[in-house]
Amino acid sequence: MNNAPKKHDAQPLTVAPSHTADVILHRQPVRASVGKLPLIAIGSSTGGTEALRVLLSGLPLDMPPIVVTQHMPEMFTKSFATRLDSLCRLRVKEAEDGERLHPGTVYIAPGHSHLLVKSTNGIGYAACLHPGPPVNRHKPSVDVLFRSAANVAGKHCIGVILTGMGRDGAAGMLELREAGAINIAQDEASCVVFGMPKEAIASGGVHEVLPLQNIASRLIALCGGR
User: In angstroms, what CA-CA distances link 34 with 107, 148, 155?
Assistant: First the structure.
């Protein structure tokens, strides 16, 4: 008889589900946008903190509201916004639930919540923070931000996807394009990781692929033409 102790049975690995933006908000059918004012929505991940510094510091004060989802733990997003605020002509702050979005201001998604855009009185926009589960295994998620901008701002939105690993933002950027937005992706040569822009380009959601140093001037031109 074999009395040797048995090894413990191996426990199966638990993999967190990769939700889509549907768990946070539903996609609205393509229609006339609710909001009537320009809006810029930006998504980024690995390498994005420096890319955002370069991009945002190149923009003047007379820009439309800018909403940003950067994959970052919640203990860092407020200090990140404060640092950018000290380097940019634009005001940069961590987004707060329910606040109106004002021109000349950048709103950074807090690391504990998804950032969504809501309409206010059918004209402007407000921030909405949603504590739901991660989307594409990220919270905040770029897909959630882009879908909300597509639903509300539509053709009045400009979408930008910067350096980052994975594919968060690709589906949302296609939804933005289908809603009438103009979309820009950072090019491979200037990315730390070309994952997110590459996936957005492959999805068919991108109009222009530009080096990081050229995106600010392109945004200024696009906003001037709208």
Answer: 20, 11, 10
Spatial distance between the Cα atoms of 160 and 158, rounded to a whole number of angstroms: 7
Kindly state the tokens that stand for 225: 């033409």
* Both tokens assigned to 20: 């889509």
Question: 159 with 181: CB under 8 angstroms?
Answer: yes
CA distance 177 to 207: 8
pLDDT, tens digit, 9 for 90 and up, residues 146-204: 999 999 999 999 999 999 999 999 999 999 999 999 999 999 999 999 999 999 999 99
Task: Give the end-to-end CA distance of the chain in Å, rounded to a whole number.
Answer: 84
Cross-strand partners of 129: 115
- The reported pTM is 0.91
Nearest to 69 by CA among 32, 109, 103: 109
Q: Which residues are catalytic?
A: 45, 71, 168
Residue 63 dihedral angles phi and psi, to the nearest 5°: -110, 155
Q: What is the DSSP annotation of 51-113? A: HHHHHHHTS-SS---EEEEE---HHHHHHHHHHHHHH-SSEEEE--TTPBP-TTEEEEPPTTS
Query: Token pair of 108, please?
Result: 């950074």
Dist. CA 28–CA 99, nearest whole Å? 23
Q: What is the pLDDT of residues 8-65, one digit of tens each?
A: 555 565 556 789 998 999 998 776 677 789 999 999 999 999 999 999 999 999 999 9
